[in-house]
Write a structure and sequence with these properties.
- 2 copies of one chain form a homodimer.
- With about 325 residues, the first copy, chain A, is an alpha/beta fold.
- Chain A has 2 domains: about 1-125 and about 300-315, ATPase, nucleotide binding domain (Nucleotidyltransferase, domain 5, 2-Layer Sandwich); about 130-295, 2-Layer Sandwich (Nucleotidyltransferase, domain 5), CATH 3.30.420.40.
- Helices cover about 35% and strands about 25% of the residues of chain A.
- Chain A has 9 helices and 12 strands.
- Chain A has helices at about 40-60, 95-105, 115-125, 185, 190-200, 220-225, 230-255, 270-285, 305-315, and strands at about 1-10, 15-20, 25-35, 60-70, 75, 80-85, 110, 135-140, 140-150, 150, 260-265, 295.
- In chain A, strands 3-2-1-4-7 form a 5-stranded mixed sheet. Chain A has a 5-stranded mixed sheet with strand order 10-9-8-11-12, sandwiched between helices.
- The two termini of chain A are about 15 Å apart.
- The mean pLDDT of chain A is about 90.
- Chains A and B meet through helix 7 of A and helix 7 of B.
Chain lengths: ~325, ~325
């Protein structure tokens, strides 16, 4: 029987399950709503059913050698415990790994979704061949996963990778975390909206002058940037520039080889990546021989199941 | 025969050699001038003589199981090559490890002095029990060594640990590296002198008003701080505060457990550590369960030989 791996992406609204071969071929997938409010055992039961359904559809020529699960929250990866998570109210210290393992009868590895996505990109995506990398996911907040020596880097107590709260200007704008000048204060959604608001008076002809800056989404601003709006372009240029300062700190401290950019705002990739790359090149020391490239993520919405399956492979 | 290890600290002016037992007892030491200008083979010859003299003095009950050497410069640690170093003009791609190994007939590991000092403090000094730590050496510049999972962290190409060039204020003062607002621009010697100069007008009664700010040394400023001079105290307070911002970035990104402070300026430890600790506590996320303490280095001028001997032990 050929060994295959199960990747589970547990999100606040959706559960994705996939059976993936070692060469990265997806053999089967299932997708369903999370229904988090129904409680842990209900959710675990539905994950199990999805895995079994996937297993059935790939047939008896394959044997699931292990499973991985990525979840947005604070994870104790060593013990497979979801310690807490904003999207899962009331789920405190849930032994997700043990619960799934009991029923599935294979080893189950649990990790944070940002870490899992970074591992997925390293094994199957834009990070292949770069065992020292960081994947940054831009969205409302800024998530990050570090791959060091080909493995997820957790730090001493699993709290590593808070790239969004790297300070690039100690006197900078207030961040949601209460500190000043964090990367997230510039490149997170609210930072982007703040910048639009600040600059509107200087760009009276901008089409963004007509939108409600309290409710406009980065993708709407992106559309205007694509259409040539100068305000919108200047905003994304600065998102990239500030991201570049933060990336410079990471590259100088950790000597990583590659940066992968994912998430909603990263759709504005061209604008952001160009200015981020320019700033990073200016910030990096010891960068001339082997410059660090910023590249868009490749796995898109499949990053979760690819990453979680990679987790299972890594822990075999 | 009991196994012992040889630690070599090759500096621009002095070579220190020590034979150290696994429990950290120093059995023998030698110290001599480097005479770098006499060329590689002369220096290597004198290191070998010093090692042999040390070996002779510890006697035949001990056998040297390996040697380590720390040197201030860019080191290719995997191949034992000193690629280049400011203090060793003309020494380009010197295979220090192989040269010493040929004569000493034991395995010789080469690493950068800041990395070696960090490893020494981890194995025998202020970092015992903390496998995730950073040691920062304050001086003219800012050196740093990262210990990750109990080992020196080199990054993808040996260029990791540039803590001195972490940006904490992208609009901040100019650093010697040409960038703005690096940690070193605040806590390196020239940053300290700049701060004194900037503040003199506000402290006309300061005893520092009488000194030549172009030539005064941080230790003179420290003496005045100890004597109660308010300008001197405010300067060291800010050195610590800015250091704390940089350390916050490292703690949030890497989830290290301990920071060790060494070097000349660190003599002003009380002033610097207190304000650095206060700022770090404010900057750290996920820090409440296991707060990161900043502590002074313990090995002082012995860090080099302890660290280099630890390098040999680690690579046995």
């Amino acid at each position: 029987m050929k060994k295959v791996f199960c990747g589970i992406d547990l999100g606040g609204t959706t559960i994705d399950v996939g059976i993936i071969a070692e060469d990265g071929v997806i053999l089967s997938t299932e997708k369903m709503p999370s229904f988090v409010e129904r409680g842990v055992d209900d959710v675990v039961g539905r994950i199990v059913n999805a895995v079994l359904a996937c297993g059935k559809s790939v047939g008896t020529a394959f044997s699931i050698a292990g499973a991985g699960i990525g979840v947005a929250g604070l994870v104790d990866n060593q013990n497979g415990v979801l310690r807490e998570a904003t999207n899962f109210p009331g789920w405190i210290n849930v032994p997700l790994g043990a619960k799934l393992q009991d029923v599935l009868k294979v080893s189950v590895t649990v990790d944070n979704d940002a870490n899992v996505a970074a591992l997925g990109e390293y094994v199957f995506g834009a990070g292949r061949g770069y065992p020292y990398l960081m994947m940054v996911t831009l969205g409302t907040g800024v998530g990050a996963g570090l791959i060091i020596n080909g493995e997820i880097y957790h730090g001493a107590y699993g709290a590593a990778g808070e790239f969004g709260h790297i300070t690039i200007d100690k006197n900078g704008p207030l961040c949601a975390c209460g500190r000043r000048g964090c990367v997230e204060a510039y490149v997170g959604t609210s930072g982007i909206l703040r910048t639009v608001k600040e600059r509107l008076p200087a760009f009276p002809k901008s089409r963004l002058a007509a939108v409600d800056v309290e409710t406009v989404m980065p993708k709407d601003i992106y559309r205007e940037a694509m259409a040539g709006d100068e305000l919108a372009r200047s905003v994304f240029f600065d998102v990239g520039d500030n991201l570049g300062y933060g990336l410079g700190n990471v590259v100088n401290l950790l000597n990583v080889q590659r940066i992968i950019l994912g998430g909603g705002v990263a759709a504005a990739g061209d604008f952001i990546i160009k200015s981020a790359q320019k700033r990073l090149d200016m910030m990096s020391l010891n960068n001339s021989e082997t410059p660090v490239k910023i590249v868009p993520a490749e796995l898109a919405e499949k990053a979760g199941i690819f990453g979680a399956a990679s987790l299972a492979m890594a822990n075999l």
